[in-house]
Write a structure and sequence with these properties.
Elements lengths: L2 E3 L1 H7 L6 E6 L4 H16 L5 E6 L4 H6 L7 E6 L2 E7 L4 H11 L1
Parallel strand pairs: 1-3, 2-3
Antiparallel strand pairs: 2-4, 4-5
Length: 104
């Protein structure tokens, strides 16, 4: 299951040794609901290799502002605390998984 990330927990998670994948979303966002199950599948498939979570931009706007999130869903891929890749909008599991594999 994808981790529910907050502004506070993000600061700790970004410094973890595992790659971090963050899905920025909101309840009212249709494309976010479409990509949600894909994020959940990736979280299950890669639970031992990466941290995969979701951050609700309506409840946690600090991190979204820091990374200039203007459209959702936006998925950011971090390794060793550094932003390595991003994807804006809905996408296939294959596309998102390829981006994740590139940072493992």
């Amino acid at each position: 299951m994808a981790l529910q990330i907050t502004d506070e927990s993000f600061k700790e998670l970004i410094n973890d040794n595992k790659p971090l994948v963050v899905d920025f979303w909101a309840e009212w966002c249709g494309p976010c609901k479409m990509i949600g199950p894909v994020i959940e599948e990736l979280a299950k498939d890669y639970e031992d290799k990466a941290i995969i979570g979701k951050i609700n931009v309506d409840e946690n706007d600090e991190v979204a502002g820091e990374y200039g999130i203007r459209s959702i869903p936006t998925i950011l891929y971090f390794k060793n605390g550094v932003l390595k890749d991003k994807h804006i909008g809905a996408g296939s599991k294959n596309l998102l998984e390829e981006k994740l594999k590139a940072i493992l």
